[in-house]
Specification:
heterodimer; A: Aldehyde Oxidoreductase, domain 4; Aldehyde Oxidoreductase, domain 4; B: alpha+beta; 30% helix; globular
């Protein structure tokens, strides 16, 4: 691919995050750093049983405790619903271990904890439904009595003629895979600080991926106008798709604050964290595919059963994403998908990093690996044969204006030495390949997918960029500063990013669905071009050329081809203000994808993993990963590499380590010690391959590098492990015990 | 999770500490590094009225060779210091290896040897917050009459994860236990009880003051191995220490001790017998590893399945014994 990198002065050059000095010296502010005058501490009383009726709640002892300023139960909520099926604080039924029943606010954390223990709740236990099988059985007791069955949502997608395609297929294979519950393990615990002490105006500080959605939901449910809800989202200590919506503790903090007429902070404990946001669920994936003997994929059929937990949170979106995903990566004639979301008395599931697509793509990837083995085709060739290309339109109508998938496959295979290794490695060494696709944006939640941006330029030539896009640590604000600096012809250091306050920030749907760089990036670029136009008017007069003949570069402005006539950028700004017109330079811009699909731009990736399995302990050692990703354009190659590293590491965690171990609806390992999240010692060597396809719609050609790499990692490592042990991987995470079990099964078969 | 209120006493001598222990027996805990006790207190698992800080008592912060050549280590010795101690490295490298494998550098900077020897047993159903534990009736370890990890069992199956325990037992160490007016010295093996709820023989007014490792007349070598899911900050899935004495392939005596698979370290006597009878060879290692599998007795499914624990024990025995044999310079690998 040709790259136009040389024409950019800032885009494409690696630079550290703007806030790196602040973060690494502990100066960045997070929600828990905010302490308001008179602030109280809240504590939530949660159900200790998975299913039951509330017979009585006695709050009198808690109310009498010195230092307690407010106690709330369902009666104080005014009927607020957290979701379509979830009341704020249970009225008569609790549906999972951890369901919110009451809450207190007191002068300090100790008093709040003591008061919470003094609230006496009498329960009448009901039978709990804890597995997908129990819940989906025809005679299963119905969990939400207003429903007809336990299917919280169902989704069917059919494209083409799957029956005909199967009939024409020369080879058909079916497989079933299982994923187990996982948790996001945020560095920053869930916390909400609400100030609702004056009626009619709520201010809330909390880590979030989207201030706007929080603002909208809080306003709507609390009967406030949106402008009277001020969201302050400072730095966010990791989000991993887990902070996309308001959760009960946000509402509870607000209601406690209203009742006590003082600010209230609720900080979740580490084990509460696993209850407040539990991510992936226990899901079953059934795949059936039809192929020609030469490896041409004809049809994909998938049947998925997702554990929803007690309430539908974001799982209905997962049902959609996992369905649509099936026909985005490979050229396929037909597809049939059925996804069902099943209510159980488990903790409500949420997005895990990858929005449910990480385990799904593990399953599809491993299935295709088994197909390749059966057909005697090298997996790399199978991928190349079926990979989508630039100009291809999928069954669902998504058109690829740029696509570097084949380039990713070829480059990754070459760099990893695939040909020399595949099928030629010593025993218990394995190599595996996986591919992935991801949208740069997530239109569909609203009619629009809008990001807006403002930029104001001071007399000294420095600019303040206003954006509602949060930075959860991925470096989005640095990326925005680079885009702004490139568009204006100044330096990244000249830009101050102002963000995190809905009273100030322009509208932005938020930092999820891989929309930051692409969508907000386009908005920032538009705002900067608007400001530049204002400056060009002044410069054109001064330099005696047409505005279109001007070059803005490295803090100077000059006529094209005549850099010796350059004027300093700040002089243009000064002259624009200090003129008869007295114009202060402010740019504004917004971007909304004109497509009715999730996005106009899709990224593609290929990864290759090399592993060594210890056949005696079942331990997997990740020797090396080669991670190739088509990012359109690397705005900041250092940040791209950081994303590739982070995603690969996160994916490795999901496939090899992470599992919420369950017993009767309760998590046995809700701690960083027992939930085996990998740590730095588990890091492995990662080779980066940045593929640039210069997307026509992306800012400077850029596309997402958010969750795209992640959905590829799990399948890649699973395929490598499967290759090492010579046996399919059917359940994740692939723990040492499961590997030894697979080896025993393999032995039995021989 | 916060600490509840408690009285704190910092004695200036061991004698003062022992007096306080006697006066408040039953309502007192000693605090050295605090890396185990404070965490459990935050979870409400222990609520002593009095904490006696013994971490900086000079009597407990010594390491020295006594006239007989034995190594005496004070219970208050810090793990990071011990990990770098040249006397320990020379006299008991296996104990040094065990110490280095504990938790993380940060935790070792706080933790003490005595603390690790006394480390409370752990269980999924025990090491949880009050909120978590409210979902279930009390278990043996919290004053109830059942075990959630092994249902129907008549005892607590919480697991002893002290990494130094198998090493000390294999080394034939003695544990020095003191209370006001008396002192007793017991073999490390007898210090532990195979009961998760009361896993040591320490009485409420006693404290562990030190360890004696026989080095004077001992010949032979000791090796320690630990397998954990993660490389840093993780308890062992299984650990082993082995002490062998002999010439060449003959083996006069053998002690093999498995850690982290049960409520007490497991001393593999039959497995050791295999080695004494057959000497150390590739064949006897295989036989010993298989003997270990059957010698383990009933195992709990806590932290890993009983079957996996057995697999792991077999691997641990095999690998630790291999470390006594010089590794062949070239290893032939067969291709699939």
């Amino acid at each position: 691919m040709s790259t136009k990198r040389s024409t950019y002065s800032i885009v494409g050059k690696s630079r550290p995050k703007l806030d790196a000095p602040l973060k690494s010296t502990g100066r960045s502010l997070f929600t828990d750093d905010i302490v308001l005058p008179g602030m109280l501490h809240g504590k939530i009383v949660r159900s200790p049983i998975a299913h039951g009726r509330i017979v009585n709640i006695d709050t009198s002892r808690a109310e009498r405790l010195q230092g307690v300023k407010a106690v709330i139960t369902h009666r104080d909520t005014g009927g607020v619903m957290v979701g379509p099926d979830q009341m704020l604080l249970c009225d008569d039924t609790v549906n999972y271990i951890g369901d919110e029943v009451a809450a207190v606010a007191a002068v300090d954390e100790e008093t709040a904890a003591e008061a919470a223990e003094l609230i006496q709740v009498e329960y009448e236990p009901l039978p709990a439904i804890l597995t997908l099988q129990e819940a989906s059985a025809p005679d299963a007791p119905i969990l939400h009595t207003y429903c007809e069955d336990n299917f919280a949502d169902e989704r069917t997608m059919v494209y083409g003629d799957p029956d005909k395609a199967f009939a024409e297929s020369e080879y058909v294979r079916s497989d079933e895979f299982i994923s187990n519950p996982t948790h996001n393990c945020f560095a920053e615990l869930h916390v909400a600080l609400a100030d609702y002490s004056l009626p009619g105006k709520l201010s809330m500080w909390t880590p979030s991926q989207t201030a706007i959605l929080f603002q909208k939901n809080l306003a709507q449910n609390l009967g406030l106008s949106e402008s009277n809800v001020r969201m302050c989202c400072l730095n966010t200590g990791g989000a991993f798709s887990g902070r996309t919506d308001v959760k009960p503790h946000h509402y509870i903090a607000a209601l406690l604050s209203r009742k006590a007429a003082r600010p209230v902070k609720i900080m979740c404990s580490v084990d509460e964290e696993f209850i407040v946001c539990r991510a992936g669920g226990n899901n079953i994936y059934r795949f059936k595919t039809g192929f020609m003997k030469d490896g041409t994929l004809k049809v994909i059929e998938a049947d998925m059963l997702h554990d929803c937990g007690a309430y539908v949170e974001t799982q209905f979106i997962v049902l959609l994403l996992t369905g649509i995903m099936l026909q985005l990566l490979y050229k396929v004639e037909a597809m049939r998908y059925q996804g069902k979301l099943v209510y159980t008395n488990n903790i409500p599931y949420y997005f895990h990093h990858g929005g449910g697509m990480t385990p799904e793509q593990f399953a599809l990837g491993q299935h295709l690996d088994l197909v390749a083995r059966d057909l005697g085709i090298d997996p790399v060739d199978l991928q190349l044969k079926n990979a989508v290309e630039k100009g291809y339109t999928t069954l669902s109508g998504t058109h690829y204006a740029s696509c570097g998938l084949k380039e990713c496959i070829k480059k990754a295979a070459r760099k990893a030495g695939w040909k020399k290794k595949y099928g030629k490695l010593p025993p218990y060494r394995g190599i595996g390949i996986g591919c992935g696709v991801m949208s740069s944006g997530g239109k569909g939640m609203f009619v629009h997918d809008t990001s807006a941006a403002f930029i104001k330029i001071a007399e000294d030539g420095k600019a303040s960029l206003f954006t509602g896009l949060p930075d959860m640590g991925q470096g989005s604000h640095t990326t925005m500063a680079i885009i702004a600096a490139e568009a204006l012809g100044i330096t990244t250091e000249d830009i101050t990013v102002v963000s995190g306050d809905t009273d100030i920030d322009p509208f932005d749907v938020g930092s999820f669905s891989q929309r930051g760089t692409f969508t907000t990036g386009n908005a920032v670029k538009a705002a900067c071009l608007d400001a530049k136009k204002q400056l060009a008017k002044t410069a054109a007069l001064k330099l005696g050329v047409k505005p279109s003949a001007l070059v803005f570069k490295q803090r100077s402005v000059y006529p094209k081809g005549a850099p010796e006539q350059a004027m300093a950028f700040e002089d243009i700004v000064f002259d624009t203000l200090h003129s008869k017109e007295g114009r202060f330079v402010m740019g504004r811009g917004f971007y909304n994808s004109p497509s009715d699909k999730a996005s106009l731009a899709y990224s593609f990736g290929t990864q290759i993993a090399e592993v060594e399995v210890d056949p005696e302990t079942g331990f997997v050692k990740l020797l090396r990963m080669t991670v190739a990703h088509d990012v359109g354009r690397a705005i900041n190659p250092l940040a791209v590499e950081g994303q590739l590293d982070g995603q690969a590491f996160s994916g490795a965690g999901q496939i090899l380590f992470e599992e919420c171990l369950m017993d009767s609806g309760q998590i046995l390992n809700p701690s960083r010690l027992d939930y085996k999240l990998p740590r730095p010692f588990e890091l492995f060597e990662i080779e980066h391959i940045i593929v640039e396809t210069n997307d026509p719609f992306g800012p400077f050609g850029a596309k997402e590098v958010a969750e795209g790499p992640l959905v590829t990692t799990a399948q890649t490592i699973a395929n490598a492990v499967s290759n090492a042990i010579g046996y399919p991987i059917k359940e994740i995470p692939v723990t040492p015990e499961r590997i030894l079990e697979a080896l025993k099964q393999k032995q039995k078969q021989h | 999770m916060r600490l509840l209120r408690f009285e704190h006493f910092k004695p200036s001598s061991l004698e003062e500490a022992l007096t306080a222990m006697q006066e408040s027996a039953g309502n007192v805990r000693v605090l050295a590094g605090g890396t185990d006790l404070l965490v459990n207190m935050k979870c409400g698992l222990e609520q002593p009225g009095l904490i006696v800080s013994i971490g900086s008592l000079p009597e407990l912060n010594t390491i020295a060779e006594d006239p007989s050549g034995d190594l005496r280590i004070g219970a208050g010795m810090n793990l990071s210091e011990l990990a770098e101690n040249s006397l320990l490295a020379a006299k008991a490298p296996a104990l040094r290896d065990a110490i280095k494998s504990i938790a993380s550098q940060h935790i070792r900077n706080m933790a003490t040897l005595g603390g690790n020897v006394c480390l409370d047993t752990r269980c999924w159903y025990y090491n949880q917050s009050k909120l978590w534990r409210a979902s279930r009736p009390a278990c043996y370890k919290t004053g109830g009459d059942q075990c959630h990890a092994t249902r129907g069992s008549e005892r607590c199956h919480a697991i002893n994860s002290a990494d130094t325990a198998p090493a000390l037992i294999a080394l034939g160490a003695q544990v020095v236990v003191q209370k006001k007016g008396s002192q007793r010295q017991i073999p490390a093996e007898d210090f532990y009880r195979d009961h998760g709820a009361r896993h040591t023989v320490l009485e409420p007014d006693e404290l562990l003051s030190g360890l004696v490792i026989p080095c004077g007349n001992e010949t032979g070598k000791t090796h320690f191995l630990k397998i954990s899911r993660r490389q840093g900050i993780d308890f062992a899935l299984g650990s082993i220490a082995a002490h062998l004495a002999g010439n060449g392939s003959t083996c006069h005596s053998a002690r093999l001790v498995i850690g982290s698979l049960g409520s007490a370290p497991i001393v593999l006597e039959k497995t050791a017998q295999v080695l004494v009878e057959a000497g150390l060879s590739q064949e006897s290692i295989q036989a010993a590893a298989e003997a270990a599998r059957s010698e383990l007795g009933v195992l709990t499914t806590l932290f890993s399945s009983a079957g996996y624990k057995r697999d792991l024990a077999q691997v641990l025995v095999k690998r630790v014994l291999h470390s006594f044999i010089k590794k062949p310079t070239t290893q032939k690998r067969t291709r699939r």
